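Lab channel / #folding
Pinned by the channel admin:
"Please post every new chain as: sequence first, then the structure tokens as a reply. Keep commentary short and put observations after the output so the thread stays searchable."

First post following the new format, from NK:
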Amino acid sequence: MGFKCGIVGLPNVGKSTLFNALTATAAAEAANYPFCTIEPNVGKVAVPDERLEKIANIANSVKIIGTQLEFVDIAGLVRGASKGEGLGNQFLGHIREVDAIIHVLRCFEDEDITHVEGGVDPIRDAEIISTELMLADLESLERREENLARKVKSGDKESIALRDLIRKILPVLQDGYPAQSVKISEEEKPLFRQLQLLTGKPVLYVCNVREDEAAIGNAFSEKVKNFAQKEGGRHVIISAAIESEIASLSSEEEKKAFLDSLGLPETGLAQVIREGYRLLDLLTFFTVGPKEAHAWTIFQGGKAPQAAGVIHSDFERGFICAETISYEAYIECGGEQGAKSAGKMRQEGRGYLVQDGDIFHFRFNV
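Reply from TO:
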């Protein structure tokens, strides 16, 4: 299990350039005019994790399989997208299918690259997209409430609960706030997900800056930082141009030397992955053996049987226990046998909450 992030923004802010760089492909045509991307391009990248390589080395694993992050490059939205402007309805539909939104904002001046709004203002751009998503959600919820009327009259409990939740969200959207700002109870969460609200998805704002500003940002990115904090989102500063250059380098040594020369500790991809994990409350667990070392992803709060189910539904259905070693214990004891001898392997049952870095061997019976 990975997670799917939709890359959105106004035309000509660097979405497709970023997508190409992050996925190291030329699948999306990066062109200097609006709507060069009409169908969403999808690219998968392995999530870098030093821990995976270390446990693989100890276990002499033949194969190393990382968990994956999926990027969806969605065409540029414009004012009026919620009413169909610029093929807006089609593109908004693509956003409904992703887990999180990566909102690319142009934070650089360049006379050679046109801006659909006539000038650079990332906060205005963010608000344009946010408004269009809220308008689309308003229309969707109003229509949904009308369609529920008959079932509500018949006393259908789920329909009544869904109608009540809609009535809780609508005033918030009407006041200009996203659906994710509504306090949702644990009981309401499944219904909230069922609504597939565009403004109910977590947002990572990506400030696309010039190469010489990637290390410290600029006045534009500082405004975005404050805006993101107010909205309850997160932000990162990257240069799509730098990411493109990194993607063209073949060796890790070259990439590190290039990053060092720019004063950057890591790639934009690493930042996006880390912040994406934080946004979605994800964590990583491992399985390891001589055949392969494998990283897997699960949501925070997931229990051992659910982790087993990430690997195969049979593992969850017939779950008996999870033989568990922490990553730290595995490294410290030199592998599984050493951890066993040191009493660092535990048998965990159905109620065990998965911890980041756990190394599992699942016992099951079907």
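NK: The CA atoms of residues 79 and 263 lie 37 Å apart.
TO: also worth noting, Residues 25-38, 84-88 have pLDDT under 50 and may be disordered.
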